Backbone:
């Protein structure tokens, strides 16, 4: 017996199916939780601005903005896990002066995912503000 | 069993290849010095896992290979040379270090390094290297 799968019809069905969409959302949320876990907690070496009259306290500013900036967005029929930090690309791929922390790629490996068109930082978003 | 330090193996192996040293001299590094001289190649292991834990023998290292120009075309030439050399001649016994059994390449991307102003051209390739002692 030969079974022919109508991929277009199957895709259309899965796009409309609530259970499939819930599964997709669950995976996206799990991915986000894992990638936040894998992200470095950034720490600035600069010092906080001292208010007039306040004694000088030598304490570093702690940021962790990269961790906070992971977002899950629904775009049409799929979900996008994205980091809006403008330095996200530097953290993912490193620079000559910084190591690549690669949180996205390390998490993708955990999920048996494949690198394809990873985008970082602010850029055109097909979903607009969504 | 002591698994193979692939970062060190690959950087030393590339430094011994004339077509690479003709472009970067001996600047195939795992940590970039404070005053970097371009072009250069940086190799970093970002992940990896042993295929089996017991015995700890066959190991996978997931590498990021950064090739910095010079101009963009030089960075591209560097990454092409490295990928070609790795696919053709990296496999096999490396005396005193270990055996490379397989190399699998991932994405090749052009991601300029924003740490400099203006950004420095950089091609970046991913590779999984399987080794055993």
Residues:
């Amino acid at each position: 017996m030969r079974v022919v799968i109508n991929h277009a019809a199957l895709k259309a069905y899965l796009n409309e199916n609530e259970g499939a969409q819930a599964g997709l959302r669950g995976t996206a949320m799990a991915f986000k939780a894992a990638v936040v876990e894998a992200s470095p907690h950034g720490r600035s070496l600069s010092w906080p601005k001292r208010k007039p009259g306040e004694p000088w306290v030598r304490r570093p500013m702690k940021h962790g903005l990269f961790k906070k900036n992971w977002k899950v967005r629904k775009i049409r029929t799929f979900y996008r896990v994205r980091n809006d930090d403008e330095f996200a690309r530097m953290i993912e791929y490193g620079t000559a002066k910084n190591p690549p922390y690669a949180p996205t790629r390390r998490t993708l490996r955990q999920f048996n995912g494949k690198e394809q068109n990873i985008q970082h930082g602010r850029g055109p978003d097909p979903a607009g503000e969504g | 069993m002591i698994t193979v330090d692939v970062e060190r193996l690959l950087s030393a192996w590339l430094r011994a290849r004339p077509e690479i040293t003709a472009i970067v001299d001996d600047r195939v590094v795992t940590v970039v010095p404070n005053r970097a001289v371009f072009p250069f190649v940086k190799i970093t292991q970002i992940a990896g896992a042993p295929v089996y834990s017991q015995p700890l023998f066959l190991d996978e290292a997931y590498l990021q290979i950064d090739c910095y120009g010079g101009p963009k075309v030089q960075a591209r030439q560097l990454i092409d040379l490295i990928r070609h050399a790795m696919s053709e001649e990296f496999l096999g016994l490396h005396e005193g270090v270990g055996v490379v059994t397989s190399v699998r390449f991932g994405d090749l991307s052009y991601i300029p390094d924003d740490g400099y102003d203006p950004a420095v051209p950089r091609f970046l390739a991913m590779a999984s290297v399987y080794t055993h002692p």
About this structure: Residues 122-130 of chain A have pLDDT under 50 and may be disordered. The first strand of chain A starts at residue 70 and ends at 75. DSSP finds five helices and two strands in chain A.
